[in-house]
Amino acid sequence: MSVTNVSAIPVEMGVKPLEDELGLAPYVSNHDQVTSVTRMLVKVETDDGVTGWGEMLVGMKSAAVTKAVVDDVIAPELIGRDVGEIRDFVESFYFPYVKVRPFLGAVETALWDAFGKTVGVPVHQLLGGKTRESVDIATCLGILSPEESRTYARRAVEHGFSTLKTKAGPDWREDVERIRAMHDEVDGELEFRLDPNQGWSFEDAVRVATRLEEEGILLQYLEQPVRIDTYGTYASLRNRVRTPVAVNEDTYFPRNLRFLLQADAIDVAVVDLVPAGGILAVREQVAMAANAGVSASHHCGFDLGVKTAAMLHTVASTPGINLPPDSTYYGWDDYIIEDPFEVENGALRVPDGPGLGVTVDEEKVERYRCD
């Protein structure tokens, strides 16, 4: 069961327009506008003919850089090793001066897929077994006008979602108006998450949370409102408002999450298995959060079917992830797995086939390949 080849394959996939059923494009945040996304697939092949797949967002917005790290840095260290030596490989891998956790996260996912296929069991069983058959997900929405947002809040309820995450822009007043409009449209049937992607000041975060609280709207959480590495600011914010405070980008740096937990500065950790360094690492983060009495959700960076499958196995087998993970999976123009996931009453079913339980359509991969 030795690894014989590791390769990175960039693909560019289009996002369905908002007007289509569960479409998302243009998906507007305070730093970009998404109509298509470049993702990196990682393919691990073994000497017994098994192939495992992983996936990540391209690093530094460069497919060439991401591919080079996987092909030139990680692959030479992995080829020849037993596919089941997952923890030993991840923990022993070291490259001075450069943090390669996201790249390892994608490769580790492919190893779990290959190992599960080799022994004939799903990844969730290798992780101790699933605790649920399906995973409720939070639907996502970019920045729109308050009136437009009403339409898509209603759509979310009609498709069975209980939680909606939306981005926040440079004007906090407009963000408050959007949340107010959506809350009114669905008469409280949705919980909301608001994500400024580090774009606010401390004062703006206080204003938003307080204004919504005064109107009887308590967000499920306010996600990463101010920049990373500001532990004292998050502790002050949590003491100042009743709205639950979450971090996402801070969890990409293990010491940041540890410091925030020690400072009792957050209510929710929005983790991600790829930047964490893999499934093993993200489960350790969730355990650390749970021991501190902090809830957890899982982030989505416009994940394709491979990482979505990995997320589902991870969430289903990790009870500490007690809030619905974000997902934009339903918003793709096309899919690179043969049997795409379907949203059923706001949830995605956990795959039960060997490995990740999905089959990559390699003809589709070649069609959307962009290197």
CATH architecture level-2 label of the largest domain: Alpha-Beta Barrel
CATH topology of the largest domain: TIM Barrel
What integer is the average pLDDT? 97
Q: What's the structural domain tally?
A: 2
Given the C-alpha coordinates, what overall shape results? globular
Considering the protein shown, what is the CATH homologous superfamily of the largest domain?
A: Enolase-like C-terminal domain
Structural class: alpha/beta
Return residue spans where pLDDT drops below 50 for at least 5 consecutive residues. none
Distance between the termini: 30 Å
Q: How would a textbook summarize the main sheet?
A: 7 strands, parallel
Give the strand order, joined by hyphens, for the main sheet.
7-8-9-10-11-12-13
- Count of helix runs: 13
Q: In percent, how much strand structure appears in the residues?
A: 15-25%
Radius of gyration: 20 Å
Q: What's the level 1 CATH class of the largest domain?
A: Alpha Beta
Task: Give the fraction of residues assigned to helices.
Answer: 25-40%
SSE pattern: EEEEEHHHHEEHEHEHEHEHEHHEHEH
